[in-house]
# Entry
Amino acid sequence: MAKLKSEQHHWWPRCVSRNWAAEDGTTGWIRPDGNIVRVPPHRLGAIGNAHHIKLGHSPGVETSWDSSFEREFDIADNNFPSVISWLEGLERKFIPEVDLRRRFLALSASDDQLRLLTESVVSLAVRSPRNRAASVALAERLRGTLPSHERNALIGVNMCHSQRIITDSFGTRGKYAVLFSEGREFIFGDGFFHNVVAVNTAPLTPKLLVPITPYMSVIVSRPGSFMVEPRLSTLVLDDDEVEKCNHAIQVYSRSSLFFRSQKPTLIEDFMRNEHLVYADPNNPIDNLILSIPGIPPRDHSLHFLMRG
# Structure
C-alpha cells in the first residue's frame, strides 16, 4: 500500500466536541492535579497516528503490512451531526415520580436511526484512551514498559476490528435511553462507563453510558433478557442524578476531563490518574440502566455469594 501519511486522529471527534464550546468558543480541560486550561474544542481529543498500524521494527521503518483503520469510523463521524440533531429533538419531560422506572418516556424509532445511534456511541468507546490502554494492558503486564512504536502497533492490531464487531453484534437489538439535563452540565473524559474494552469477539451483554453534549447523554445496552418494546426512551434527570453520571466519568477517566462551563469538583478516584471501574454491580449507573422500561429488575437472590 502507499506510504501512510502522518495524521492527527481524534478519539473525541470534532463533530462532537464542538458542542462543548462555551460562549467564548473554548472548552475546559482539567488534569488530575487540578490544572485547568481552556482550549478550542477541535484541539482536544487527538492522538498522532492513533489509527495507523505500523509494523516496522523501529520508528520510521515502513513495511508492506502497514495499514490504517481510520475509515472504520467514517459512518459514525459522517452521521454524528444528524444523530445529535435527531436526539436533541426527541420529546421529553420531567416526570416527578419516586420510582425511576416510571419517569422514562417511551418513544418510537426506526431501525436506521437506532443503527446509526449505535454506530456513533460505540465509536466513542472504541477509540477512547481507556480502550487503547486496555488493548495493550496484557502485553504490558507480561513484558513491562514497551517501546512506543511497538506499543502503538499492538494497540492498533488489537482494536482495529472492534468497531465492526461491537456495532454489528448490537444491530438494533437493545435498549436505548437518552438522558437530558435541564440544569447541571454533563462532563466528558478520556474514559466513561462501558464494558466494551479490548473486544475481539462479540460481547454478550454490552452496556454504555456516553455523554454526547453538556445536556445530553445516551445509554446503549443489550441485557441478558429484556422486553423488546419500548426500544427507545427519554429521561430528564435532576441535578443530583447528573452528578452521579459525572462521578462515573471521573472514576473511568485517567488523565483528562472536559467541561463546558461548570467546573467539576475532582474526586479522589480521578486524582489517582488511573482508569478505574466500579467494583460493585450495585452502582448508580448499573442501577440507572436496570431502570429502563423493559429491563427486568436486578435479581438479588444470589447476592449472598458476594458477601464476605
The chain is about 30% helix and 15% strand.
